[in-house]
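Dear Dr. H.,

I hope your travels went smoothly. While you were away I took the liberty of generating a structure for the chain from your last submission, since the lab meeting agenda had it listed for discussion. I wanted you to have the full record in hand beforehand rather than looking at slides cold. The sequence, exactly as received, is reproduced here:
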Amino acid sequence: NLRHLLKLAKEIKIKLGILLQKPDSVGDIVIPYNEKPEKPAKTHKPSLDEALQWRDSLDKLLQNNYGLASFKSFLKSEFSEENLEFWIACEDYKKIKSPAKMAEKAKQIYEEFIQTEAPKEVNIDHFTKDITMKNLVEPSLSSFDMAQKRIHALMEKDSLPRFVRSEFYQELIK
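The corresponding predicted structure, in token form, is as follows:
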């Protein structure tokens, strides 16, 4: 099992090395992308007033489909969409009614975002990670609340100000 992990780590290191090499031109970069392309939500462009409110309120941005899509595109452009994806996964998780489905989704969220070396590992402190892991012994609707609050605060403090300064946002308020 350790041999398998070492082999996996070596493969990842090689793939990262290839990605990190400076290409001669941007056209040389090929990033494998397996996810199905998302269909843009059928939404109307926000009014100037709505868009201006997003500067001070991450929640208002996240509640607006157009704002959410713009924010997600911006984060993807800087390869930092894992926090938003985690936040959305937590919101979806809280809508689950069946305990069996909840346990299954909790395991999926943990493996994708929380565990060390997860493919889309979010940046949360050890204390929050430990509490979240303890909460997952018996999954409930609030299992990820603490981690989700930490990530929300991080996006509010870090990602939102960068988004507001970005072309993505500036185009909306022209």
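Two observations you may find useful: The chain is about 65% helix and 0% strand. The chain has one domain: 46-169.

With kind regards,
E. W.
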